[in-house]
Design a protein that fits this description.
30% helix, alpha/beta, Rossmann fold, 362 residues, 7-stranded mixed β-sheet, 11 strands, 4-stranded antiparallel β-sheet
C-alpha cells in the first residue's frame, strides 16, 4: 500500500480498502443502491462538541447522480466520509447508511474494508496530496487492484494500464512508470480516478475532484466521470461548492448549510423554482460571461454559524435579508409544502425562477 505523510495520502491510495474481501451484495428488489437516513456526525473534543452533520437523508440509485453543495464547513465532505467510514476516532456517527441493503454505521474498520473499493470508492480533492510522490503512478494503481482482487503482479500491471487508458491517460503503458510530479494536475486527477475505479465500485464519490483545476480541465474531468458512470451504471455523488457545476452534470441536488440539508430537489426543479435564499446566494456568486467585466461579485454577508453552539431557529437567518422573528425562534423543517419532491427548509422562500441558460440538463 502506498503510504504518505498526511491523512489525504493515506486515504487517497487506500480508498479501495485493504485485504481481499468479498463483493458488495446487490440491492434487493432493484431499489436504491445507497440509502442515508438521519445521518448525524459530531466530533467530541475536550471541552466542546462540534455538530458537523445534523440529520441529513437521501438516496441514490445505480446509474443516477447526486450533487451535495455547500460552503466550506457546511458538512458535505464529512457526510460523505461518514459513508466511507473515513472519520477520525473523535467522530460519533448515528443514523443509518445502507449500501446495497447492508448497514454500514457501527461496523468495525475490518468490516468496512469489505465495502470500500468494491462497493464504494472516493476521489479526493487534491491529487498532489493523495498520490504518493515517491512512488510511480502505475504501481499505485496496481496496488489498488491487488488490494481486493486475487491477481498476480503481471495481471495487476495489465489491469492498471487498462485503467489508465480508460481514464484517457495518453500513452498509458509508457507513462506507467512516471512519478506524480511528471504529470499535470488534470493527469494526476485521472490517475486518482483510475485508482478509485480499480475494483469496479457500485458507488463513486467525487469530493471536490475538480476544485484545483482550470475550467477547461475541470470540464474534461467531469465529462470523464459522467461517461464512466454511464458505462458502468455506477451511482455518483458529486461534492462541490459550485452550484453551476452541479447544474450541468447531475440528476439531483442537495444544498447543505450548517450540517443540514436546506433544499433538495431534482436539478431541473431546483433551478426552475429555487426556494431557499441560501441556494440563490450560491448561484449569484458564480461569475457569468453576460455580466459586465470587473464587476464585484455578490457575496453573502456574515459568516457561517459556530457548529459548537447551534441555536434554535434557521441557521441562515443572521445572513438572510428575508429573515424575521419567526426565523430566529423556530427551526424550519425540510419539507415539500407545495407537494412533489422539491423540499426546502425556509419560512420565507424565494419564488422567482432563476435563469440558468442551457446549464440545466434536459
Amino acid at each position: 500500500m502506498a503510504l504518505g505523510t498526511n491523512q489525504d495520502i493515506g486515504e487517497g491510495t487506500g480508498a479501495a480498502g485493504q485485504g481481499r474481501e468479498e463483493r458488495l451484495p446487490d440491492a434487493s428488489g432493484g431499489g436504491p443502491l445507497l440509502v442515508v437516513r438521519e445521518l448525524r456526525v459530531r466530533f467530541v473534543q475536550r471541552r466542546q462538541q462540534v455538530y458537523a452533520v445534523n440529520g441529513i437523508s437521501y438516496q441514490v440509485t445505480a446509474g443516477k447522480s447526486l450533487a451535495i453543495i455547500g460552503e466550506s464547513g457546511s458538512g458535505k465532505t464529512v457526510s460523505c466520509r461518514a459513508v466511507m467510514g473515513l472519520l477520525p476516532p473523535t467522530a460519533r456517527v448515528t443514523g443509518s447508511v445502507r449500501l446495497g441493503g447492508a448497514e454500514l454505521v457501527g461496523l468495525s474498520e475490518k468490516e468496512l474494508c469489505r465495502y470500500r473499493g468494491t462497493g464504494v470508492s472516493m476521489v479526493f480533492q487534491d491529487p498532489s496530496r493523495s498520490l504518493n510522490p515517491t512512488m510511480r503512478i502505475g504501481p499505485q494503481v496496481a496496488e489498488a487492484v491487488r488490494a481486493h482482487l486475487p491477481v498476480d503482479r503481471k495481471e495487476a500491471r495489465n489491469r492498471a494500464v487498462h485503467l489508465l487508458e480508460r481514464v484517457r491517460v495518453p500513452a498509458a503503458a509508457r507513462r506507467y512508470l512516471d512519478y506524480p510530479h511528471q504529470l499535470s494536475g488534470g493527469m494526476r486527477q485521472r490517475v486518482m480516478i483510475a485508482i478509485a475505479l480499480a475494483c469496479d465500485p457500485k458507488l463513486l464519490i467525487a469530493d471536490e475532484a475538480t476544485t484545483s483545476l482550470d475550467v477547461t480541465t475541470q470540464a474534461q474531468i467531469m465529462e470523464l466521470l459522467i461517461e464512466l458512470q454511464e458505462q458502468s451504471n455506477m451511482a455518483l455523488i458529486l461534492v462541490s461548492h459550485d452550484l453551476g457545476l452541479a447544474a450541468s452534470y447531475v440528476d439531483e441536488v442537495i444544498v447543505m448549510y450548517a450540517g443540514r440539508a436546506v433544499e433538495q430537489a431534482s436539478t431541473r426543479d431546483l433551478f426552475a423554482n429555487m426556494r431557499m435564499p441560501y441556494t440563490r446566494a450560491l448561484l449569484q456568486a458564480i461569475p457569468r460571461l453576460d455580466r459586465p467585466s470587473h464587476q464585484i461579485l455578490p457575496v453573502v454577508e456574515g459568516r457561517p454559524p459556530d457548529l459548537t453552539h447551534l441555536t434554535v431557529g434557521c441557521a441562515f437567518a443572521p445572513r438572510c435579508d428575508r429573515a424575521d422573528d419567526v426565523c430566529v425562534t423556530s427551526t424550519p423543517e425540510l419539507a415539500a409544502p407545495e407537494g412533489g419532491d422539491h423540499r426546502y427548509a425556509c419560512w420565507h422562500p424565494c419564488g422567482e425562477p432563476v435563469d440558468v441558460d442551457s446549464r440545466v440538463p434536459g
